[in-house]
Design goal:
alpha/beta, seven-stranded mixed β-sheet, three-stranded antiparallel β-sheet, 12 helices, globular, binds pyridoxal-5'-phosphate
């Protein structure tokens, strides 16, 4: 059996996405800027895809800019706000548990004089609106808080954070990295009250090489890429029509069946969690009770997660030791910020789900995990305590 439980790293493209991308490559291959029919065909597809993605975020099409990935969207949002606002204030608030796409950007801006405040998560990996309120100063220009953490599934209270910003009369721009929540939770930008939102195609069954940034109308970011004037002149470069058409098709699926997808993920996550808790001793669940059901993070004490990962791979099961982008870096900055002990971090595996996973897969993975964790512990001469 092949079991793909690493959907936070990337997802399998859906049939609808593959069809849309094939059509875009095979038929709508014109340049959308060209004035003849072949170009207009591509422009029409671009417009329709933008409308679908915008609808799935509850924004206007003109508030949505296509990018190449979530990382680019995060870079544009954060560096853009800095360039636009650094004369008004130098403080930027974020969290210790952000993805490197955010953390490295903020680090970069420190060299230019930005004062970066990173909020520490609670033991279950969450940030509160109160923490944000307490860190706010009149010269805070950006608050960047992820929606769902990629390693634990912890959900951040974006609505409450918006209320806290309003209550403080803050003019800070509110950005969220919604790469892991899009397609699972409600990412309506108006309901959440965010000014900027980053999403990525390959986490929602579209392809790699496409992402988007929502920019609230009236918020002016500097041009991110100079050139031929595509994307409203903000992000030039001939559009990746196939990737964008794929993201459009993924957005249509999200609009149609996000709730059912979430229900299926929840059932699979719950089944795996129930069986791990019942059948494997000495484990610690690192995802909070109310985590987004797309992620389950578990420490298998006495195990080296990397070894367990390779043992599971030989049985056809794909999981991760942390975020794929940072899995070559020793330890997890997220689990470490939550205060986990070294042995808990060393034994931590991340299982991440999509709507395509089944209960049978959860059972197969639970069977194999119980066997392999016991075998690995025996080799490690692990005894409780
Ligand atoms: N933000 C989060 C929370 C992520 O999990 C990821 C990817 O894992 C990214 C940003 C980067 O997205 P991309 O791979 O599209 O650059």
């Amino acid at each position: 059996m092949f079991v793909y439980f690493d959907n936070s790293a990337t997802t399998k493209p859906s049939e609808e996405v593959i069809t849309a991308m094939n059509d875009a490559l095979g038929v709508c291959w014109g340049n959308p800027s060209s004035l003849y029919g072949k170009g207009l065909e591509a422009e029409k597809l671009l417009k329709a895809s933008r409308a679908s993605v915008a609808k799935s975020l509850g924004c206007q099409p003109q508030e949505l800019y296509f990018t190449s990935c979530g990382t680019e969207s995060d870079n544009w949002a954060i560096k853009g706000v800095w360039e636009a606002r650094k004369k008004q204030g130098r403080r930027m608030i974020s969290t210790e548990i952000e993805h490197p796409a955010v953390l490295r950007c903020l680090e970069h801006l420190k060299k230019d004089g930005a004062e970066i405040v990173l909020l520490k998560p609670s033991a279950d990996g969450k940030i509160s609106a109160r923490q944000v309120a307490e860190a706010l100063t009149p010269d805070t220009v950006l608050v960047s808080i992820m929606h769902v953490n990629n390693e634990t599934g912890a959900v951040m209270p974006l609505k409450e954070i918006r209320q806290a910003l309003n209550a403080a009369g803050s003019k800070a721009v509110f950005h969220t990295d919604a790469v892991q929540s899009y397609g699972k939770l409600n990412c309506g930008v108006r309901e959440l009250g965010v000014d900027l939102m980053s999403i990525s195609g390959h986490k929602v069954h579209a392809s790699k090489g496409v992402g988007a940034l929502y920019v609230k109308s009236g918020l002016h970011l500097p041009v991110f890429m100079d050139g031929g004037g595509q994307e409203g002149g903000q992000r030039s470069g001939t559009e990746n029509i196939a990737g964008i058409a794929g993201l459009g098709a993924a957005a249509e699926n999200i609009l149609k069946s996000r709730t059912e997808t979430l229900e299926r993920m929840t059932a699979v996550r719950d089944q795996l969690k129930r069986r791990i808790l019942a059948e494997i001793p000495d484990i610690k669940i690192n995802s909070p009770e109310d985590a987004c059901p797309s992620v389950l993070n578990v420490s298998f004490l006495g195990c080296r997660a990397e070894v367990l990962l390779h043992m599971l791979d030989t049985e056809g099961i794909c999981v991760s030791t942390g975020s794929a982008c940072s899995s070559h870096v020793k330890g997890s900055h997220v689990l470490s910020a939550m205060g986990l002990k070294a042995n808990e971090i060393e034994g931590a595996l991340r299982f991440s789900f999509s709507g395509y996973n089944t209960l049978e897969e959860a059972d197969y993975a639970a069977d194999k995990l119980a066997q392999l964790a016991a075998a690995h512990r025996k080799l490690m001469k692990y005894h409780k305590g």
